[in-house]
Amino acid sequence: MNPQAFKPQKRVFIIGQASVVGQQERMGPIGDAFDISEKDDFGMDTWEKAEAEMQRLALGCAMSKAGLREGDIDCMLAGDLINQCISSNFGLLDYNIPYLGLYGACSTCAEGMLLGSLLCGGGTGVTRCAAVTSSHYCSAERQFRFPLEYGGQRTPTAQWTVTGSGAFLLSSIPEDAFRNTGAFIPEIVECMPGCAVDRGISDVNNMGAAMAPSAVNTLKRYFESGHSPEEFDWIVTGDLGSEGSAILIDLMHAEGYNIQRNHRDCGKIIYNSEATDKHAGGSGCGCSAVVMAANILTNIMKGTVRDILFLGTGALMNPMSLNQKQSIPGIAHLVKITAAEKSEIEVGQ
Predict the structure, then answer these.
(1) pLDDT tens, residue by residue, 82-102
(2) For 9, 29, 118, 325, which has the most beta carbons within 10 A of its beta carbon?
(3) Which has more confidence, 152 or 243?
(4) Mean pLDDT of 68-76
(5) Neighbours of 64 (CB within 10 A)
């Protein structure tokens, strides 16, 4: 297997981002950092419409913060957890921007960044693109588990699907780096697509255990390409939660890598799990998206951290595969993001 990471041919910057969340997320440790927080129905009459509205709000907010309009963006990449990605399809319908639908389960945020950086930085003619994703606790429960009215009990290893949407604007135009208000600009310098990994986990209430082996696979491949954990301030996983994070650290230690010092997990960051009964933490496409937009990238823009690895982790299953008692493969896409100094960016080329 080729362990080599892909590098954009041109410099690609994250020039704007936005986060939209529900009430439970607003009450969490980073609640004040989110751009928009509303009641979970977002004024809609179904949960699926509410999730679509979150995507519409997130992209609109990101565009407003970056000072861009629809015509300035060449394409948008978006996905969610609901069948045929209807939250993305309907939520972004009003935007007159070419649309590419994605499905990577909870890895969709990283997948969108990865593909967007290669599109913008690959000489394709695309210079700006948007990566958008979302999840909603109520729509996910209806599709993957039971309707809320059923009142089912959750196991200690279960995670809580985040009600949230994150949008990111990527650009290979050097001048665009100055649209971002931070002292530094987040730059995507390297990425590595994940391989699907199946270790026979079939418990839908333990997504962390299903996804952790895929994170190990991607990290090991990346480190074998010439990097080490010590190079990075943070190694951020998408939503392994407390259960999956512990498994990841143990499995990486068995492979000869110590990531305990600099590992962070979005599923552990977003909630105060003990106080709010969120069990193993947060999950869902929106989990890593809103934490990246509101917290991780903000720290990069301030210069608090300079180099991070972001691994979006996803469980590749659907209700039919679960009903047929199939196991749950995991996948983890990697994006390396650095804090670029604006004074070193050459404009006018």
Answers:
(1) 999 999 999 999 999 999 999
(2) 118
(3) 243
(4) 97
(5) 13
- Ordered by start, the domain boundaries in the chain are 1-349
Token pair for 86: 């209807």
The pTM for the full model equals 0.94
What's the CATH architecture for 1-349?
Answer: 3-Layer(aba) Sandwich (3.40)
Please give the average per-residue pLDDT across 3-18, as a whole number.
93
Decide: 157 and 290 in contact? Cβ < 8 Å.
Answer: no
CA 175 to chain centre: 26
Contact 128, 176 (CB under 8 A): yes
pLDDT (average), residues 216-229: 96
**Could you tell me if 247 and 209 are in contact, meaning their C-beta atoms sit under 8 angstroms apart?**
yes
Closest Cα partner for 239 from 328, 131, 314?
314
Distance CA 105, CA 345 (A): 35
Nearest Cα to Cα of residue 235 among 148, 180, 311, 172: 311
- Between β-strands 330-341 and 184-192, what pairing exists: parallel, antiparallel or unpaired? antiparallel
pLDDT for 23-53, tens place per residue?
Answer: 999 999 999 999 999 999 999 999 999 999 9
How far, in Å, CA of 41 to CA of 311, rounded?
Answer: 30
C-alpha distances (whole Å) from 276 to each of 168, 171, 264, 281, 332 are 29, 38, 20, 10, 28
**Contacting residues for 304 by C-beta, under 8 A, at least 6 apart:** none
